[in-house]
Design brief:
alpha/beta, Rossmann fold, Helicase, Ruva Protein, domain 3, 2 domains, two-stranded antiparallel sheet, binds adenosine-5'-triphosphate, binds magnesium ion
């Protein structure tokens, strides 16, 4: 049974707001083994003050995890401070991190606190830490080791108590090998590594994520979705998601906007193609065979054997069809009475359950169930 994780990234322990809370829901969705392992690590490390180093492809939820760590830590009553090192021009980065005194450089008309000052007794999330230029790396190393630094234009040393969570989508080890990143800083950051797996390696989380976004984004867009067709869900599960959860989120939003009569269209199909295709790349013979089998199974309510079953309609022996289903990775989706896929927070992942309306053997032989 698919379920939602109970870890939340949006709620501070005392309910206070942080400095940069996103408007959309920050609930961490999914119960794949890969995500559960990550969350187990989060639970263990959150109560400590240790540096956490989050790695993962773009859109895998690095920032969400960083917020979850802060919110599960004793520092959660204080604001979560973040800085995206890739978004700040190089010459301003030092001042953003460590602050400056009035007159420290042209344009410094007043004293300004840096992120390390603001994050005192709290958590600092340094996003895209791999983009910190070599010239600033020694100063970052020092503040991590000694918890002290000087503002630009001042010799006064400031002591802080900052818990650092850093993230990057870059391969920092490779950057160390190439001499682009200091190895001592890398080791200082890599105290507690958290590796977020890409969505294509935890496809079992997709149905729950889709349901979550359909619900939350549906509210945002002002459209209610009552029905997700099986072929839409299968297409979403089959796609590789190079942009990971962010891409899924954006495509679901688009699909909600394009929906008619509460039915979620397949956002992976080119506009105007409606329900006539199953997979975005269904141009090969293998893809066409897969689509035909799937369509026939759906047309006969997933009855495989018998006179009116899919095997007879396709002109195949029952065992041949079962073999082909296995080869194509076709699983019968969970059916809730006569609805293909009801939108409910707790629906099962596609292809995990059988249906009691006809004999299990005819409708869905156990060989076709994923293990
Ligand atoms: N497990 C999850 N459950 C629900 N939403 C998620 C989950 N993981 C990520 N998201 C959502 O996906 C989007 C991208 O997440 P986030 O910004 O944390 O990714 P990221 O790894 O920091 O990406 P980037 O490297 O591009 O900065 C956000 O809107 C976030 O709320
Ligand atoms: Mg990010």
């Amino acid at each position: 049974m698919s379920k939602r994780s109970t870890v939340r990234a949006s709620e501070s322990c005392d309910g206070s707001s942080d400095n940069d809370r996103p408007s959309k829901s920050d609930q961490l969705i999914g119960n794949s083994r890969a995500l559960e392992e990550v969350l187990e690590g989060v639970k263990r490390v959150a109560p400590t003050s240790s540096t956490v180093f989050i790695q993962g492809e773009t859109g895998t939820g690095k920032e969400l995890i960083a917020r979850a760590i802060h919110n599960a830590s004793p520092r959660c009553a204080r604001p979560f401070i973040k800085l995206n090192c890739a978004a700040i021009p190089l010459d301003l980065l030092e001042s953003e991190l460590f602050g400056h005194e009035k007159g420290a450089f042209t344009g410094a008309i007043a004293q300004r606190l840096g992120r390390f000052d603001l994050a005192d007794k709290s958590t600092l999330f340094l996003d895209e830490v791999g983009d910190i230029p070599p010239v600033l790396q020694p100063k970052l190393l020092r503040v991590l080791q000694e918890q002290e630094f000087e503002r630009l234009g001042s010799n006064r040393t400031h002591r802080v108590d900052v818990r650092l969570v850093a993230a990057t989508h870059r391969d920092l080890e490779e950057m160390v090998r190439n001499g682009q990143f200091r190895s001592d800083l890398y080791f200082r950051l890599n105290v507690f590594p958290v590796l977020l797996p890409p969505l294509r390696e935890r496809r079992e989380d997709i149905p729950a994520l889709v349901a979550h976004f359909v619900e939350s984004l549906g509210r945002l867009v002002g459209r209610r979705i009552d029905h997700i067709p099986t072929e839409t869900m299968l297409a979403l599960r089959s796609y590789d998601w190079p942009g990971n959860i962010r891409e899924l989120q954006n495509l679901i939003e688009r699909a909600i906007i394009l929906s008619v009569d509460g039915v979620l269209p397949n956002p992976l199909l080119p506009p105007g193609k409606g329900r006539c295709g199953v997979f975005p790349t269904g141009t090969t013979l293998i893809d066409s065979e897969r689509a035909l089998i799937l369509r026939t199974l759906e047309a006969v309510g997933w009855v495989i054997g018998g006179r009116d079953g899919a095997a007879a309609r396709l002109g195949l022996k029952r065992t041949t069809l079962i073999y082909k289903m296995q080869r194509h990775g076709i699983f019968r989706p969970y059916l809730n009475s006569n609805v293909e896929m009801a939108v409910s927070p707790s629906f099962s992942a596609v292809g995990i359950q059988g249906n009691a309306r006809t004999s299990t053997k005819d409708r869905f032989p156990s060989e076709c169930l994923p293990s």
